Amino acid sequence: MSELPSGWVEATVGDVTGYVSRGKSPKYAESSSLPVVNQRAIRWFGIQQEHLKFVHPDQFPQWTEERFIRDGDILWNSTGTGTIGRACLVTTGDLFPPKVVDSHVTILRPQRDAIEPRYLFAWIRGPEVQHSIEDLATGTTNQIELNRATIMRTRVPLAPLAEQRRVADKIDALLTRVDACRDRLDRVPTILRRLRQSILASAASGELSREWREANGSQDDWPVVTLRDVCSSIADGDHQAPPKSDSGVPFITIGAINTGLLKLDNATRFVSETYHRSLKPERSPQFGDVLVSVTGSIGIAALVDTHEPFVFQRHIAVLRPNARVITSEYLFHRLSADDMRQQGQSVATGTAQLTIPLKALRSFTFSLPPLVEQLEIARRVGVLLAFVDNLESHFRDAINRVEALTPSALAKAFRGELVPQDPGDEPASALLARNRSHEAVGIARKSKRGDTRRPSTKTRAETDMLTRKDVTPTHLSSILKERGALAADVLWGASQLEIDEFYAQLKDEEEQGLLRENRGESIGAPRLLESAA
């Protein structure tokens, strides 16, 4: 951590929290009065209600008071690739009805006389912590986790408490503006799509080229034709799955045309050149052909603008325009218009996956302008769509800038650059020392109350392990005699003692720090086995 501003001090999460605990694994019910907050429900903006689960009423008594979330708690996803590290700040609105968390979520309960909850949440959300999540996590790729010990020693740059509140207020104000900007930008893709469709609809109706017709004395009445009338062939892909090859001719799926552009780089499969040569000519796309999806996301069109050979799946149809009556570009633009997609929706069959039969596709109708006007329409559409593409590029840049605002603001906040320092603020070192002294007094009082109790020579988990009725006293020694010396974790697996209910209880106790030997070290399942053996 870089040099801290005056009055700041480096602390840990353990220094500024009074309660840090992983949740329990509940028995679930379809519905009950006790919701469970899980990884999916935790979002940066708060708890997403629709993803909550519910504790079975039989288990209600197992959730003690401290396990219910409280205002100012931070819920931190502690397991799972893709969700680990995401957190939310609990507000009063989240408390009704009361809620608990499952075993994949850790509750951090800030001590408010040491740290402002919004300040700690902002630090967890900030780039320094989020960029180091993989380094903090332990375990395999698919089972990484933030354990309690790691969370407790996670560093926090602690500002004076008054400054923490100013920082939190400033961050709240900035992020509110960022969210408002993001909300406005979220509407842009819909606007751009409507603009594209407006251009194509104007082209299809003849309005886009009306002035051109008047200037050139072209006909106003366009004949109605079908796709069969203007294409020399309309075919779909081979219905038999082609033999795979490590290289050769690209085999594309709908994913290669879902943007309206043909992208052969998206091909993940190949076929041999021999197979490609065996295809009928109408199933071997040529430059100027038009592809259209006929299954699933129906009606997506793409112009074949390459001479490179490729083959395609049966969910795509290829249309070869008759150059004497229609241009490739005009056919592509007409197939991309909403009215053609609506025709596809009206004739599609199937329920789980819509499909446009080739017979129905060949019968699609539209009005056809003369070839010379088709060329002018395609030119004008190209210019207008290029303008829309330019707007979309600016939109993408704006999105990237907005997304960078939050981590940038958070990074500045914890360098002491977001709000001015006040020399009159009580230094963080003083409030941290006071907090530690309060903790020491509490521990001393707790220790004094417990002095009359004699420590047990065995933990409850050891007793449970060694008194199970389905395990003989010689169970572990028999395994060692049969297989020779084994590491503790291997012996644990070989023992077949990992019964879900018992092990879940054991792990929960270990997470809470309740399993302690006289010298104060945690006892895990492998260590229990070592002592038993």
Topology:
Blueprint: E1 9-12, H1 13-16, E2 17-22, E3 28-29, E4 35-37, E5 42-43, E6 46-47, E7 53-55, E8 74-77, E9 87-89, E10 100-101, E11 105-110, H2 117-125, H3 127-130, H4 133-136, H5 148-152, E12 155-158, H6 161-186, H7 188-205, H8 210-216, E13 224-226, H9 227-230, E14 231-236, E15 249-252, E16 269-271, H10 273-278, E17 290-293, E18 301-303, E19 311-312, E20 316-321, H11 328-336, H12 338-347, H13 358-362, E21 365-367, H14 371-413, H15 428-449, H16 460-466, H17 475-483, H18 488-495, H19 500-511, H20 525-532
Helix pairs in contact: 6-14, 7-14, 18-20
CATH level 1 name of the largest domain: Alpha Beta
Strand segment count: 21
Dominant shape: elongated
- Which strands sit side by side, in order, in the main sheet? 2-11-8-9
- Low-pLDDT segments, ≥5 res: 451-470, 498-533
Oligomer: single chain
Q: What does the main sheet amount to?
A: 4 strands, antiparallel
How confident is the prediction overall: mean pLDDT?
Answer: 85
Beta-strand level of the residues, as a percent range?
A: 5-15%
Number of helices: 20
Write down the Rg. Answer: 33 Å
CATH architecture of the largest domain: Alpha-Beta Complex
Structural class: alpha+beta
And the CATH topology of the largest domain? Adenine-n6-DNA-methyltransferase TaqI, Chain A, domain 2
- State the share of residues found in helices, binned by percent: 40-55%
Domain count, please report it: 4
**N-to-C span:** 45 Å
| CATH homologous superfamily (4th level) name of the largest domain | DNA methylase specificity domains
